[in-house]
Amino acid sequence: MSSAPSINPAEAAFFGNLAEDWWNPRGSSAMLHKITPIRSTLIRDAAALRFARDKRSRRPLAGLTALDIGCGAGLMAEPLARMGAAVTAIDAAPENITAATAHAAASGLAIDYRCQSVEALAETGAKFDLVTCLEVVEHVAGRDSFFAALAALVAPGGLAILSTPNRTPLSWAVLIGGAEILTRQIPRGAHDWERFFTPEELAEALAHAGLRVQETTGLSWRPGKGFQLGPDTGINYFVTAVPAA
Fold first, then answer.
1. Is 99 left (phi over 0), alpha (psi -120 to 50) or beta?
2. Who contacts 143 (Cβ-Cβ below 8 Å, separation ≥6)?
3. CA proximity to 110, closest of 80, 142, 136
4. Between 51 and 220, whose confidence is greater?
5. How do residues 14-52 score in pLDDT, each as one tens digit?
6. Three-state DSSP state, 196
């Protein structure tokens, strides 16, 4: 695993150490728990549009295959499965896969969890209708290798959805200065601001790999209102992308 170009062993170990606390809504992943409903809604709506599904359906992703890259302990993989998708989820930290597998089993969900690099999975020739990659790209080592493998895993006519922090003074102030240092809502050392992508940089990296960005949506926070989707990409954002050819 550590030999895969995209894997940073130190990053994998850092997040693997958080595995036992991942499903605690007041623990080290509290912020992820807060944004999971927003993520789920955006993914549901984008997939419903792409695959001509009724987003109001109880299982709008039924019949689709989905891959969650950098799944952690399964905070996004489980909603994908509940929406009806046949889910495969991969992570570089074995501790995360152990925690994810146990939680899915206790929840009665059949999810194919694997401790596997994105490159290794792409080499199998696997293809997925929907590929999600949330708060991951800022942690990878070999970026060209990572994006090439991610693009290869998107089936013809498929959809990729990524989210990541923007590299702005505001994102440093909120995510590192505020959430990591002052309030400690995020474990200290979880982010390296220098490795954040601007939306333009991410679109360029995806285009080089063969994916065309269709839409960029900001994720912001407002006092009294919490997290919101909208045009403000100053802190964090989502992109939806499709095969260019």
1. alpha
2. 6, 137, 205
3. 80
4. 51
5. 888 888 888 998 887 778 888 899 999 999 999 999 999
6. coil
Q: Euclidean distance between the first and final Cα of the chain, in Å?
A: 31
pLDDT (0 to 100) of residue 18: 82
Pick the closest to residue 98 from 75, 115, 78, 86 (CA basis).
Answer: 115
CATH architecture designation of domain 9-243: 3-Layer(aba) Sandwich (3.40)
**Among candidate residues 154, 116, 169, the one with its CA nearest the CA of residue 2:** 116
Q: What is the pLDDT of residues 43-90, one digit of tens each?
A: 999 999 999 999 999 999 999 999 999 999 999 999 999 999 999 999
What are the DSSP E strand ranges found in 135-192? 154-165
CA-closest candidate to residue 213, choices 149, 167, 147: 147
Residues 6+ apart with CB under 8 A from 163: 39, 133, 134, 135, 219, 236, 237, 238, 239
Pairing label, strands 236-243, 154-165: antiparallel
At 135 the pLDDT is: 92
Structure tokens at 105: 């089993």
pLDDT at 181: 62
The confidence score (pLDDT) of residue 129 equals: 98
Q: How many CB atoms lie within 10 A of CB 239?
A: 22
Locate 2 and state its tokens. 């550590």
Q: How far is CA 144 from the centre of its chain?
A: 17
Contacts of 185 (CB under 8 A, 6+ apart): 30, 31, 179
Distance CA 225, CA 77 (A): 26
Question: Is beta strand 86-91 parallel, antiparallel or unpaired with respect to 112-115?
Answer: parallel
Domain range list for the chain: 9-243
pLDDT for 179: 63
